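Please, structure for the following, as tokens.
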Amino acid sequence: MPRYAQLTDIKERIAVIEEDLLYADSFIDNLLKAKNLPVPADPPFPDILKQLAIFTALYRACIRLAQAEDTTLIEKAKFYKQEIDNLSEMLSPSTLGIQLSTSITSARMERS
């Protein structure tokens, strides 16, 4: 079962399937690890991860359905890829709701 977004979250008229959402989950988990950010264990997840999952699933569905022939779907895929890139750049501890000041304070206290 997908973690970050569900089929009911998809509002576009593109035939997204569960495998697209599972791919999005894997993509997000790997992206978070690459950015040295924690992979959240349990919901609720930050909204940015839900949006990233939706755009990733839509991107994958467009590529899967276009089969290099449907230029409309290919253009939509390019749009979703740009949205994925934009949201990926925004991922940070603060957008995930992670408080860094507490760990900095405790690190200072440990050094004293």
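Residues 103-112 have pLDDT under 50 and may be disordered. Residues 47-66 form the longest helix (20 residues).
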